[in-house]
Amino acid sequence: MFDSVSRSDAKTIRSNVVSSAVRGDSEIAASFHGEDGRTHIGRLFERGALRMRFPRTSGRREAVVVNTGGGITGGDRLAIRIDLDGQAGIAVTSQAAEKIYRSDGPAAELRVVARLDDRSRLDWLPQETIVFDGAVANRELAVEMAATARLTLFEGLGLGRVAHGETLRNIGWRDRWRIKRDGRLLLAEDVRLHGDVATLMQRPALGAGARALGVLVHVAPDAEACLEAVRAALVGATANTDTISGASAWNGMLIVRIAAPDLRFVRDLAAAAVSIVTDGPMPRAWSC
User: Fold this and answer.
1) From CA 250, how far away is CA 218, in angstroms rounded?
2) Rounded CA gap, 75 and 16, in Å?
3) Interatomic CA distance for residues 102 and 63, integer angstroms
4) Could you tell me if residue 157 is inside a domain?
5) Measured between alpha carbons, how far is 287 from 125 in angstroms, rounded to an integer?
6) What pLDDT sits at residue 84?
7) Which residues neighbour 211 within 8 Å (Cβ) at sequence distance 6 or greater?
8) Is residue 120 pLDDT above 90, yes or no?
9) What is the DSSP code string of the chain?
10) Cα diameter, the chain
11) C-alpha closest to that of 267 among 95, 101, 124, 126
């Protein structure tokens, strides 16, 4: 004979069932190799809600990551691995901005791992990530590259939906980046945004009221030579007086940081900088 279940217990059971139903474990593992000046797919593995598609382009080879789940919520796990053999080159983007929704407790886990062989090139240029109030997520990017490889990596972060007047009063966001060149650590960066981020970002030393952030990292043998051109491009693309941007370069690496009241301005400045360091526009999906 079954024990009786109270209303509160039944509500908890239903909540747990719904929560477990929407959580997913998704993965992409893709390898590419270069031959005769062209980049070819070596292996492509897809699992869960993640897919990778290859639109026809007249220039560089492009790959588009699609999240068929329509967004990310607490407990979801997404992993992307990209391996580039010698002379392979590809630009990887996303179909749309990624949205991280409110969590009922557990954190979403996002992991991107890339390996760049000798003389290969990866342009990691996804569209921005938008964090909703109540979201809890941990993201990790890890790159191992040869000294002759070229990496251009951009990530934009929207702190709430500005057009909806949303403010982030309770989130948990952790972002961890590690880039190694020839086995030696080149860049280590950790960002944590917790709690009442709307108030936190009002502080002049942290965000000066910014609602959107962007970071561009370019690693290449000639990266430092692009610095003055990138700075000029940032000045030319700045259309909002509240937008702050800056660029620096050292040790074969160039970094651009952007803080703005809206993601539109982050996108404009990122596109301007990317056009300098890659000699080309953002992937086509950015303009769709």
Assistant:
1) 11
2) 12
3) 29
4) yes
5) 13
6) 98
7) 158, 159, 160, 162, 201, 260, 261, 262, 263
8) yes
9) -PPP--HHHHHHHHHHHHHHHH--EEEEEEEEEEETTEEEEEEEEEETTEEEE----SSS-EEEEEETTSSB-TT-EEEEEEEE-TT-EEEEEESS-EEE---SSSPEEEEEEEEE-TT-EEEE-PPPEEEPTT-EEEEEEEEEE-TT-EEEEEEEEEES-GGGT---SSEEEEEEEEEEETTEEEEEEEEEEEE-HHHHTTSTTTTTT-SEEEEEEEESTTGGGGHHHHHHHHHHH---TT-EEEEEEETTEEEEEEEESSHHHHHHHHHHHHHHHSSS---GGGG-
10) 77
11) 126
In the structure encoding, which two tokens stand for residue 52, read together?
């990778």
Per the listing, tokens 């692009």 go with 226
C-alpha neighbours within 13 Å on the C-beta side of residue 277: 39
pLDDT for 20: 46
Could you tell me the two tokens for 100?
């991280």
* Residue 229 in domain: no
* Number of domains forming the structure of the chain: 1
Identity of the amino acid at 140: E
Give domain status of residue 156, yes or no.
Answer: yes
Domain that holds residue 198: 23-205
Tokens of 16: 């747990």
Mean pLDDT, all residues of the chain: 90
Partnered with residue 136 across adjacent β-strands are 172
Residue at 76 is within a domain: yes
Contact 52, 28 (CB under 8 A): yes
Query: What is the percent of the chain with per-residue pLDDT over 90, rounded to a whole number?
Result: 78
